[in-house]
Amino acid sequence: MAVRDLALVGTGLIGASVGLAARAAGVRRVLGWDLDPRARETALESGAVHGSCERLEEALAGAELAVVAVPVAVLAEQVSRTLQASAETCTVTDVGSIKGLVCERVIDRERFIGGHPIAGSEARGAEHASAELFRGATWFLTPVAETRPERYRRVMGFVSAIGAVPVAVEPRAHDRLVALISHLPHALANLLLNHAGAILVDGHEPLNVAGGSLRDMTRVAGANARIWVDIFMENAEELQAALGEHRRRVEELESALAQRDAGYLARWIGEAAAKRRTLLETAYPDAGALFRLEVHVPDRPGVFAGITQALAIEGINIEDLEVHHVSPERGGTLGILVTGEESAQQASDLLEAQGYSVITGPAFPEG
Amino acid sequence: MAVRDLALVGTGLIGASVGLAARAAGVRRVLGWDLDPRARETALESGAVHGSCERLEEALAGAELAVVAVPVAVLAEQVSRTLQASAETCTVTDVGSIKGLVCERVIDRERFIGGHPIAGSEARGAEHASAELFRGATWFLTPVAETRPERYRRVMGFVSAIGAVPVAVEPRAHDRLVALISHLPHALANLLLNHAGAILVDGHEPLNVAGGSLRDMTRVAGANARIWVDIFMENAEELQAALGEHRRRVEELESALAQRDAGYLARWIGEAAAKRRTLLETAYPDAGALFRLEVHVPDRPGVFAGITQALAIEGINIEDLEVHHVSPERGGTLGILVTGEESAQQASDLLEAQGYSVITGPAFPEG
What is the ipTM of this complex? Predict the structure, then answer.
């Protein structure tokens, strides 16, 4: 069942990464095609493909699986061409961010199975490709009624072999799901930043005095307009529905505030705390055992090394790490997650012995 | 002008941290009072105060500056008591998250100057106090018409001496500002998480398949209900105004989506990209020169140390660092920001030589 001959239709960042991961997973032959001669060349140079073809048919000849990795705007058309140019034995899948339209309009519902890896990178182009891009990532697959089990197993097996976690979902449900978990968060990040940055308050530019929460909330704001305009356009209906429900929830909060309903607010925050734990459970099986160390660090080479090395020597595993960079003159704060109060205490003692000031506490305190 | 005798009214996390920072900055005598005998004891044991007093008057005797650091719900009352129990020579300030009400109702507008450090910590209690908590943080001060310049200079000088950046703003404007930069982001994080976690889509729990953007956006969700209910209640009016404007912006986006207005979406994303750069300018004076490395790392002790040490040896400064933890079995992705393409290339080569797979690109790509 394993794929031996793979065709990549489009060898940009995602296509070339699929190629590298496939080769690492032992796929015998990977051939690539791209409209852009430079992308073809880069894919060949980086080892993402065994061969780069000028004609689509060449790349597809003998392939058991073809992965279409082209921009959303030309996806449906390219999937049709790939189906037309490939043999009956070739199963075709794609990596597009939206699945409803492409799955409904596809000319061969038996041979095509939609796909979508949740593996964003701000980098673009085959030169940034990586065999590791999909490791541990959710990879949606959208089989339909006509999908043949053996074809589905082939795509699912391939996705697993390159390190991703296949998740089957109906195409329109996929679009509803990504509207919620990806497109709505992106939209809110943009909305929040444009809102907070639009006005002066008493002569103050809000963005100049903002703390960490606004920075966290807007990390994905302003991302790659060329990609995101197409995503928002193609998933407009589902995103509108999500925004409408969001607005309804905002109104509910406004009315609780107008009534000074402290009980509502407490329940609402408590609900978010419980959901935050659910969200973290996939990443941290025992989130309640996590402790957080906040360490003030100067801005110079070697500081992270000194700290992480000291913990490594004692066998303390860093579960998560983040920096709130303040400024070159003042340094920043290093947040370190470790498991267990004992490890936290040990880590804190070690770092304080190195002269750092450390604040320690449960990472996800109750209530 | 420097403060020699300081009184802390409330010695929880913030009060005790002010005490530690004040002592580090050379304040001669710090006396503390707290309603809770345990907080008094902890503050004394941790060295945050020279003495812990059972009666408020004792702590205030001889103080040139009193810092009121009590929960928002009892703040106005405690400020009044502090003004009544202290001498004319004593200037009183506070650290409450909302300033309008307390500044308007205060019984002595000459001696009281409102304050608010933007230095959140999820940890609570004097045992987590740190002299470094305020380093580089914005510390709002809210002088009014009656404020005497010499009193203002005293508070401002003290705030600077303990490492914070004083920013003067009118009390109601302060509340509008924090509604935008702190309370609205917190509210949206809760709204988003409660929304995404409320439904099953085609049998799938959205939170189980969520990627990094939802995790980033909801990092502050569900935070400390005991503190945040009071903050939302006290700043209800300004937060309602911010939520109303947010709703207006959501509707505008919905209507652009309904009209499939790609031009609007491109301008809207472009605006967010520009504002994101503004937001980062305070942290990174030359954000355009920043490059990002994405490194896939296993989940075991010593990995961070190996990586950060390799960079430190070559003199490559890590500007920022974050981990997207995937799972114990699969490890996660380490994001590293460095300045300059040359450093990025050098860092990437170093890490690839160590056997890591690295994706490199501009941290904040244009467009």
Answer: 0.84
